[in-house]
Amino acid sequence: MSEDKSQVKIKFFTREKDESLHVQDVPMYAPIGLKRYGLSEIVNHLLESEQPVPFDFLIDGELLRTSLQEYLTKKGLSSEATLNVEYTRAVLPPSFLASFNNDDWVSALDVSDDRRHIYSGSYDGVVRTWNMSGKVEKQYSGHSAAVKAVKFISSTRIVSASNDRTVRLWKTKNDEIPQNNIEEDEEDEIEDGKTLAILEGHKAPVVSLDVAANNRILSASYDNNVALWSTIYKEMTAIDPMEEIQNPNNKISTAAKKRRKLILKDGTIRRRAPLALLESHNGPVEQVIFDKNDNTVGYSVSQDHTIKTWDTVTARCIDTKTTSYSLLSIAQLPTLNLLACGSSVRHITLHDPRVSSSSKVTQQQLVGHKNFVVGLDTCPENEYLICSASHDGTVKVWDVRSTSPMYTITREDPSVEKGVNDKVFAVKWAEKIGIISGGQDKKLQINKGDNIFKN
Predict the structure, then answer these.
(1) Residue 107: strand pairing partners
(2) Where do the WD repeats lie (predicted)?
(3) Residue 368 in contact with residue 404, Cβ under 8 Å?
(4) Which residues of the chain have pLDDT under 50?
(5) Taking the model in full, what pTM does it have?
(6) Full DSSP string of 284-342
(7) How far apart are CA 455 and CA 437, in angstroms?
């Protein structure tokens, strides 16, 4: 029992793989008023660190964001309790790295696998490829309305979706990567940066895309539907049956090839129908993603207040979770078996897709934004971290073990008055690059933490 009520017994431990960061599991007394900084000083002293390391602390899996005394009071514990305190290297605030000027609002973001290029979609209907110096290396023009989603597929193609109700497959080329795509010989007549195929089937703006390793694409639309497509256009049915004539061996005839080249020169583009329409929502679908562990499973969120789980093989909805608010964005934390959903009521909710729909739907709420949460992404290096984009003009970084944000990223353009034209529409957390965000200020902004640690 502690004789000094101003102290509390603590047992420090860590799951860090670095053995030099382990202290002996010996109980000690610490002042009850200590917060993270004071606890970090104690751990660094125990480690005999030559250069102090900043730490975060968890008690029963929950990040400590108050003093030990406030934690005990909140949990209804006395100072005689023994606290098992886990320490882990802290994530430092993401600092401003760069800002690239775009011609219009930035509404979609993705990065190439080699992390050398950023892809953006804009309200001017143009998809752009940026290098890391902020130069636009390529522009893809064809959409007749705002581009709301863009995804990198491979070194030979990307895909975009637009308010013009279409999805477009684009021909692209990276001279540094061998072009071994199975359709390469059939794409010789298509110039780099041009449309390979227009994917038609939605009857309202298409606002979200995701791509899986099995050559499948999911799209979400305000027509209340999710659509399934292929990254390989010949796997989808031609909307114009005269576009391609194939012989019994499933090979395109020489005459058809010649006719196709003439058609393409005349400006006609291949048009393809979806492999399947996934129908179950009764409101606009805001975002759709594939399950990161099983690409035959998809998740979608909608203004109809639901999260739906899809079997993409049978094109059936296999689970529906209902909330009390419109859902605008979704990201998966696969190792934690959680779905994070951004909402119209400003918070982010965490859901376990394995839990029965009749059980408690929301596991936890993350509160801090002041407007719609329209974009989410996960940290590529830490399973507990996510970032969120909001119409309140900020990107926030969260550890899902805490209900409040770790850090807030604001727009950095000094020429723009704060609160004016500052909605953030898209966010992407990319390994080796950082947190990329785009919005109403017509800028791509990059913020990067000096230390993003794995747990």
Answers:
(1) none
(2) 99-133, 140-180, 199-230, 278-320, 366-408
(3) yes
(4) 1-3, 176-186, 244-250, 259, 262-266, 451-455
(5) 0.86
(6) -EEEEEE-SS-TTEEEEEETTSEEEEEETTTTEEEEEEE-SS-EEEEEEEGGGTEEEEE
(7) 25
